């Protein structure tokens, strides 16, 4: 099965909206002056905001099965900066599971892991 990738541009406005929705107003996400003074040099997106692109991609392809039985196991590999464009992609494996990843516009992996439909979980 071919999974259609999902691409998102992560603006500061999108990050701020996620902060409001999640209640996570850590200054590394929402305070540009604070974040510029850190080693990262700017605000970063919440990890769960970036991870949501994988779930969106899987739900678009697998529908109700993903929403009811989908499982993710991922590792966060690096920060996603405000202004980055990220693309979630998946490759089906021989056993019917998926290798998933999110890469930024430079091709750097920011999330990697596996996804599966586990109706018995």
Describe the structure in your own words:
- The protein is of the alpha+beta class.
- It has a domain at 6-10 and 45-117: Hotdog Thioesterase (Thiol Ester Dehydrase, Chain A, Roll), CATH 3.10.129.10.
- The protein is 35% helix and 29% strand.
- It has helices at residues 12-22, 27-30, 32-36, 47-62, 64-69; strands at residues 6-9, 70-76, 85-92, 98-104, 109-117.
- It has a five-stranded antiparallel β-sheet with strand order 1-3-4-5-2.
- The two termini are 23 Å apart.
List the helices and strands and how they pair.
Layout: E1 6-9, H1 12-22, H2 27-30, H3 32-36, H4 47-62, H5 64-69, E2 70-76, E3 85-92, E4 98-104, E5 109-117
Antiparallel strand pairs: 1-3, 2-5, 3-4, 4-5
Give the end-to-end Cα distance, rounded to a whole number of Å: 23 Å
Report the CATH architecture of one domain. Roll
Low-pLDDT parts are: none
CATH fold field value of one domain: Thiol Ester Dehydrase, Chain A
Strand content: 25-35%
* CATH class value of one domain: Alpha Beta
**Overall mean pLDDT:** 96
């Amino acid at each position: 099965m071919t999974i259609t990738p999902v691409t998102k541009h992560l603006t500061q406005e999108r990050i701020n909206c996620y902060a409001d929705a999640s209640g996570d107003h850590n200054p590394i996400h929402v305070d540009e002056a604070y974040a510029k003074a850190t080693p990262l040099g700017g605000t970063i997106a919440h990890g769960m905001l970036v991870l949501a692109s994988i779930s969106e991609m899987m739900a678009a392809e697998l529908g109700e099965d993903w929403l009811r039985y989908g499982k993710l196991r991922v590792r966060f590999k690096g920060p996603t900066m405000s202004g980055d464009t990220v693309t979630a992609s998946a490759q089906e494996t021989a056993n019917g599971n998926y290798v998933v990843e999110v890469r930024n516009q430079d091709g750097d992996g920011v999330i990697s892991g596996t996804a599966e439909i586990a109706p018995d979980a």
